[in-house]
Structure formats: C-alpha cells, structure tokens
Amino acid sequence: MTIHRTSPALSIALYSEGTYPQAQGGVSVWVDQLVRGLEDHTFEVRAVSGLRYERPALDLPANVHAEQVPLWGDPPPAGPRDPAWRRQLTDAYGALVGALCTLNLDHFEAALRALSVLGRRGGFTDTLESRRVTTLTLDLWSDHAARQRPGRAPDDPHLPTPSVADVLDVQVWLEHALRPLSSPAPLAQVGHAVSNGFAGLLALHGLWTHGTPFILTEHGVYLRERYLEFRRAGYSAGFKGLLLRFYRLLCSLTYRRAALVLPGSQYNRRWEERLGAAPDRIRCVYNGIDPDVFPPAELEPAEPVISWVGRIDPLKDLETLIRAFNLVRRQRPAAKLRLFGGTPAGNEGYARTCVDLTHGLHLQGSVTFEGRVEDITDAYRAGQVVALTSVSEGFPYTVIEAMAMGRPPVATRVGGVPEAVGSAGLIVRPRDVMGVASALGRLLDDAALRQRLGAAARERVMELFTLDGCLVAYRRAYPAALAGGQR
After folding, report:
1. Which of 157, 245, 302, 437 would you label with 185, given CA atoms 20 to 30 Å apart?
2. CA angle at residue 106 from 102 to 107, to 5 degrees?
3. Confidence check: pLDDT of 213 > 60
4. In terms of DSSP bridges, do strands 64-70 and 190-193 run parallel, antiparallel, or are they unpaired?
5. Among the listed residues 162, 157, 158, 160, the one whose alpha carbon sits nearest the alpha carbon of residue 138
6. pTM of the full predicted structure?
7. Is 70 helix (H, G, I), strand (E, B) or coil?
8. Residue closest to 458 by CA, chosen among 359, 386, 391
9. What is the CATH T-level fold of the domain 11-76+183-287+470-484, as seen in this structure?
10. Architecture of domain 305-464
11. Helix/strand/coil for 361
12. CA of 110: how far to CAs of 66, 208, 358, in Å?
C-alpha cells in the first residue's frame, strides 16, 4: 500500500454509531484502514454506544483518541436548576415533537439546534422525564392526530392517535436519543460521520458548537435499514411512526448540512438525493482493499464447497442460503456449505434459528458454523464459490475480498453489490431460493467458468477497488470540506 501525502495534516472529529472501535464488522474495518492509512492526520473519535462503556474490539493507532457517547446507562450530569433554562428546554422539546408530527424539516432543525445549545450546560434527563413533558407530548401528538386529513401524500404517512403508553415510550426514547447533545463536541478542523443517524447527530452538534464542517460517509443507507428493522419490531404503530419520523428528519438534515456526502455506492446515492442531499455535493467512493493481503488463491478444494463470510445477522438472510444449499446438495451429495463469522450480541436467537433449520433439513454433516477465523483468507480459500444472500448491504468487503482472491461470487441484487460484482460473478434476486441454488450449481459444475470469472474478479478489484484509491479520495475530501466551510 502506498501512502499519498499531498495535503497538510488535519485534525478530524470522527463520529460513529455501534461500530468503530467497540465492534467488529465491515464499517470498523473500513475506519481502521482509514485512520491507519492517513497516519499523518489525527482523529478524535466519538463513538455512540449502547452503554456507558463497551470494551474496544480493535486496537487504536497512535493518531487516534476515542471516547464513547452512550445512549443508555447513567444519564449525563444534570443541567442547571435555572427555571429559565428548563423552560427553554421544554419549549425546544415541544418544538421538536411538533416538527416530528408535521414532518417539518426546518422546524426540526431549529428545535434540534436549540437543544444543542442548551446541552452545553448539562443533561436533559430530569426535565424530559417530568410529568409536564409527558402532558406536552400527549397534547401535541393528539392534537396533530385529530387534525390529520384523509388521503395524505405517501411521504407524509398517517400518524395514529397515541395511547398513554405510546407517549411514555416516546418520551423515554427521545430522552435517550438526545443525550449526545449534552456531550462535549470535540475541537477539530473537519468532522466525519461514518454513518447517518446518531453519528450524524454528533456531526451536527459539532457544526453548531464549533462551526466544524463535516463530511458524511454511508456504507449502507441508514434510513432504509431502520425501515427494515422496524418491519420486524413488535412496536405499536404510534411509537414506530414517531420514531421513524425522527430518523427520517435526522437523516435528511444530516444530508442537508454535510459539506460533502460520500456514499459507498451509486445505489446509496439515489437514496441520498431523494432524501435531500444536493447532487453537486455527492461523490461516490468505493471501499478498497489491499490486494497484497488478498492474493489469488492458487488451488481450490477438490470437493464442491461454498464459503460464506460475515456476521450472523437477519440482514444476511442465511436461511435463504441454507435452503438453497439443500437444493444444491440433492444433485451433489458431496457438496459442503461452510459459514465463517461470529454472532453479535443480541443475534443469538437468529443464530439458533439457522442451526435449527440445518437440523430440520438434515444438513448437519454438510453445513458447518465455523465462527470467526484467525486468517480471513482461509475462509475464501475454503470454497470453490463464495456466496452472499443478504437482503440489505452497502458495499460489502466480503465480496471484493473474495473477488481479489479469484473466487467468483454468487450474490444478491442489493445495495452496491451489483456495482462490485459487475460481470465477474452471478447476481440473483434476494430471498430467491431457487435462483440462488441454480447459480451456485452452475458454478460448482463448471470449473472453466469459475476460472474465467475468478480471473475477471481479480482484475476488476485491481482496477476499481484498491485501498490506495479509497485513501486518496478521502485525503482530498477533508480539505475540500474545510474549504467549503459550514453550511
């Protein structure tokens, strides 16, 4: 890997949510590569986490200092008892709830900015847990629900009349969601949110506190992933509706105020433009890898083996892959499916579902759950083919890593996956068991096709998806954001 130092060293405030440095995964790998590759820059990381402290999963290089910004656990130190401050806080909170009900982005921004200013004097918990705020939330929400008209536009969906339970749940959730605005904003020349959502909230807080311009990177589309998540969640319609409005307005505001938006794929770009990002401020920057770390695999296994690499997660849709493999194995009894990857906390139930499915299909001897592997290249070498059956993706490392090693992928048409694969693999529809099985069988049965696609895959990575190219793009983006100033 070549380091390109064509711009002065800068101080960067880097904002993350649930990824770097306290969790493994693609975004954490990407951030780690970024901060190590731009070693002349310094990075002040503010990582939104669930609890007060989560042990880092990655070692930090010398140019990185990280602090966590917890949403849950003990609240921040309380703000002043000054009645005027508490009245201003209640008014700003009421304006925020009103903006959520009406989906008014300008009002949402004004309310959130006021809360950012108030948060410099301390936490909101005592005030936002008060009975007065409960009554205010109920009155604003109920009044809006009563005044809604039938036949509303698709982008302004009906918000149900709240129950008392809805109001209490929303009140608690918003108190936690607004805690980042009570955290000290780091001093830096440029900010960098590595996702939308709460990382974007911290970037806005830095912009309003210190005038720090920021760039936004999206590997996946944050709002789309919240929609998918909430489809599975058992929340009431009212609670779900108001929270999704919060996410939608927050994402739109982050797009509006970012100096540059750097999606990881053209697929993401379409969502970002629809949600308010100015087209002239969007620059697509693909993830990159060091091809020397992922050299071509010289030999493939003698048996028909399919590798899968990733975290055990519902978005990865391993159930479709297991069911497709069951069809593959009927015609190829020697076939194996090897699943490499850990189970994040909270996904144990889904992992159990996948194991139970293999037992129900009598695949115990053919499907293996192998956990994390010390050398990820061993996982790619283990298969003749690499599969990805996700229902949502950004621009996954597993695909381009496998391609760099000359392993042709069978992957679903989601996110930036088709842009990564091009014509160097087989693309199928998500949740299409028959389509996945057919594509896997085609590659397993045709060694010449595997070799041709594998060679094309390596060539495609070398041309388009190298780490050097990604680092050069970000080395240019930071000064560009600084020159553009705050928006």
Report:
1. 245
2. 55
3. yes
4. unpaired
5. 162
6. 0.88
7. strand
8. 386
9. Rossmann fold (3.40.50)
10. 3-Layer(aba) Sandwich (3.40)
11. coil
12. 29, 11, 52
